[in-house]
Amino acid sequence: MSAASFEYTNGGAAAAFGTPSVSGRLASVYSQVQTSRIDHALPLPSVVRNPFKIVDGPPSSAAGNPDEIAKLFPNLFGQPPAMLVPNGADSLRSDLKLKIGVVLSGGQAPGGHNVISGIFDYLQDRTKGSILYGFKGGPAGIMKCKYIELTSDYIYPYRNQGGFDMICSGRDKIETPEQFKQAEETAAKLDLDGLVVIGGDDSNTNACLLAENFRGKKLKTRVIGCPKTIDGDLKCKEVPTSFGFDTACKIYAEMIGNVMIDARSTGKYYHFVRLMGRAASHITLECALQTHPNITIIGEEVAAKKQTLKNVTDYMVDVICKRAELGYNYGVILIPEGLIDFIPEVQQLIAELNEILAHDIVDENGLWKKKLTEQSLKLFDFLPPAIQEQLMLERDPHGNVQVAKIETEKMLIQMVETELEKRKQEGSYIGHFKGQSHFFGYEGRCGLPTNFDASYCYALGYAAGALLHSGKTGLISSVGNLAAPVEEWTVGGTALTSLMDVERRHGKFKPVIKKAMVELDGAPFKKFASMRKDWALKNCYISPGPIQFVGAASNAVNHTLLLELGAQS
Amino acid sequence: MSAASFEYTNGGAAAAFGTPSVSGRLASVYSQVQTSRIDHALPLPSVVRNPFKIVDGPPSSAAGNPDEIAKLFPNLFGQPPAMLVPNGADSLRSDLKLKIGVVLSGGQAPGGHNVISGIFDYLQDRTKGSILYGFKGGPAGIMKCKYIELTSDYIYPYRNQGGFDMICSGRDKIETPEQFKQAEETAAKLDLDGLVVIGGDDSNTNACLLAENFRGKKLKTRVIGCPKTIDGDLKCKEVPTSFGFDTACKIYAEMIGNVMIDARSTGKYYHFVRLMGRAASHITLECALQTHPNITIIGEEVAAKKQTLKNVTDYMVDVICKRAELGYNYGVILIPEGLIDFIPEVQQLIAELNEILAHDIVDENGLWKKKLTEQSLKLFDFLPPAIQEQLMLERDPHGNVQVAKIETEKMLIQMVETELEKRKQEGSYIGHFKGQSHFFGYEGRCGLPTNFDASYCYALGYAAGALLHSGKTGLISSVGNLAAPVEEWTVGGTALTSLMDVERRHGKFKPVIKKAMVELDGAPFKKFASMRKDWALKNCYISPGPIQFVGAASNAVNHTLLLELGAQS
């Protein structure tokens, strides 16, 4: 009956740490739920619970331009996928003592700590006496050789916990020859057998470049990637999802569901909810599938249909007018963070503004506006005054207009308001409109991982350990068959080069893992598209409620994944 | 393993409803968590599970000015509290068939549906054949006689669910003679034996006026109040807490905890979190006790110490500077929604601005500013330009400055930024500062009620049923001993007049239930005050995680209540 929280004191490892930013969760006070999660026993795929061997598949190619990828990765191109399969006895030497490093790269995603736990436990279970180093603060930690040795005591309080604070993360990249050199020095200094890079598309591309570099220089250090991003845009057939997506979407969906019930109870607000996801709209789509909002904007659709801001506004206003006729003057609208980036005319306007602001005087009488093209001028005049002002005044250090600072949800509220006012005067709208804006972002990146993310990450880490144990490099940890119970999940690795294409930048080919965007002919979008008309006018709201860790609801997997796997219709 | 949600179809009651705004949750699709909650068996205090009688206590007085309260409530003043106690046999007639109305008044709070379920189940259990009417859209539903008959089938899908959408709510008041007349007509038309008003301080005051009015006119309709508000500012010895506070705080604390882990993982943001609660800062205080933020502003303390906006800013900046010296350039800061209202100098400035804007021309050169008093001018110049502009431009229909529209968290970020810049130039600050703003409000009002709120509300409703059954009026449903298991909770009613004082308005005495503010010598604030220095510089963050409905963590009760009951130290 008491809310008293237990004091977790981890005496042993206290002396090991330097900078306060990675001081560890020593003597942390944990909530009851946090505490209950620490000792949550994680299931493992049966293939890694029993003796296994690693089987190679056929040689791989690339996602595009295989010839260029082959040139960029002469040592790694064409590597086969690796798959763990049951075996009479373990085929890998258990007397090896490995030295492995691990690094977190980029934005937080729930489950990162479990990947590290998975690697650690693999090494403990299969290569007793191995050492795991955690590089601090992202790839910069590799270059500056800032690390801690991860011990059982140190890792313990982070098990099944959100955040990246065990070793923290960073956005630096290892890409110049000098930086590669620093990485080599660290690998040599620590005598590293392997390195696990936990990150998104960019980080995994760089992981592969590092693997290629080490291999090219005949260094023993192998590199394995792990798919991390709440945005859900790093995925392919072999890597069905990136970790963190499941948890983040469920946290946002909890909030959206609550706001929906509020909207229906109050009956007088339209809630405009902007959701994280600058490049792809997977989060927005998944949240829509979980909650059934009245209006959902998917950036990829806006781009494919070459919609303008006016089109988007009109779509919203049309639905709002129809709902008003039905007596509903409330609703919930989901918008992806990156919406503006998907609208070509906005990009054009921004480019023109940057040009004008750099070279011309912006006069009070608005004569400067004559320098805009007709289309851009029309768009500019269509924007609410506050947004116009923001575009003109807020610039980054290079003097560029800051699109990222525009609060899309507030802008849309103003545009919808203006358009509704017009329709009211025309007599085609009879309701009343009041917008409320929300942005759900930071709340979802560091929540306690769901049972799915906790297990998935643990398996990813365990897989990474197995791949390094068997001497693999340049692979991304791959756990499959995710619609089945954890016991039946498949475990292996996929050649990072097989995920790659090239982009031409500054006259050179650069390898990239293309972001997986929402596919308009994919199952998740098609399901959404088949239902959205109903959702618009009827109120089909679903409130997913808070993430549960125990009971039937605790093992639900997100719709996107199940639909893509064909496990849901 | 599937996220598929079950389709709840409630065929029977479909025909009963008219307006789309209260169309009921018919054929609603429910999430797994929602579904699991519908059939959650609610415990009841043992006193109502067994035969009981109702015992009156000693006559009551008033919270202040008893003579005036006695004049305002000649028929009800001095009523004793009522307490249910075990009895050999039930003392109330079970052959009575009652006609009872229920109304939700004011803002949403998790658990409202359970109060209604509690009333309904009491009537079913103890006065078979009784009828429960739900007035639609708040007190206006009483005046306009808009209602539905609540049946078992209709109530079922709302059990343990958030929101007020079963009958919706409203903010109208029944206070003029004409309005009282309308209420009388409705009571007569429906032959009402009783009415339960579920609301906050104002609504319960009005409930008592209605009870007095009915009694004065010798009508049979009795009125019982129920304490509802997430703000937690309706409470006294006999009514230890208002429902919804527990759930709302836990939802906000989940988000705050997630943001904390993000802050620590990222290491570069100060998150300014504004929390609902315009009058009192209970929510902010409770969230602080649950999560241990670096800085928490309690409105009542700001008012008591007559702090200025500059004082508040300086306090924040001092902590931020000290943290920077320790290497921490991140943190989490909680701010109550009503902060600005607690600062006397801001009130003064607003008053002067309203005066000036009403009568003078605001010239571009700022000559109008000379009309401000010295103190107000100083404050105005201290405000960030965006806020100055907002104060000058955004007015309500009466031409008044709109304080409510000021996003306090954004204003404080700007003020802190400016002050830090100054200190940087003086050499007393060496860090880097980046603020992120959040407002947690609508997300918490309609969440699925916690086990505590679910049980508490059910007991409140059951108690209201018992009080009406025994012919009581002018009482507020009172459930006590809340630190003990539900079985041991006490059940009764407290004279609403005993909670009242008077305020002088327009030369007349008006009865009011004074809002319970955060008491600076109360246990919750004292606990907070004893720990906040530690929280400021060390990172003692606690992440409460999502509300759990099963397991040990599911029965935790909020700190404020336990501390006030002396059940936690």
From TrEMBL, chains A, B:
Could you tell me which residue ranges the Phosphofructokinase domain spans? Answer: 99-464
Regarding activators and inhibitors, the annotation says: Allosterically activated by fructose 2,6-bisphosphate.
**Gene Ontology terms, cellular component aspect?**
cytosol
Catalysed reaction, written as an equation: beta-D-fructose 6-phosphate + diphosphate = beta-D-fructose 1,6-bisphosphate + phosphate + H(+)
Alphabetically ordered keywords of this record? Allosteric enzyme, Cytoplasm, Glycolysis, Kinase, Magnesium, Metal-binding, Transferase
Instruction: Give the positions the UniProt entry annotates as the active site.
Output: D231
Molecular function per GO: 6-phosphofructokinase activity; ATP binding; diphosphate-fructose-6-phosphate 1-phosphotransferase activity; metal ion binding
The positions annotated as site (Important for catalytic activity) read K228
Its EC number(s): 2.7.1.90
Is DNA damage among the key words of this record? no
What does the entry list as the binding residues for substrate? T229, I230, D231, K268, Y269, M276, G277, R278, E337, Y442, E443, G444, R445
Q: Where is it mainly found?
A: cytoplasm
Per the record, the GO terms for biological process are: fructose 6-phosphate metabolic process; photosynthesis; response to glucose
Task: Name the Pfam families on file.
Answer: PFK (PF00365)
NCBIfam families for this protein:
PFKA_PPi, PRK07085.1
The UniProt subunit note reads as follows: Tetramer of two alpha (regulatory) and two beta (catalytic) chains.
- This protein is called Pyrophosphate--fructose 6-phosphate 1-phosphotransferase subunit beta
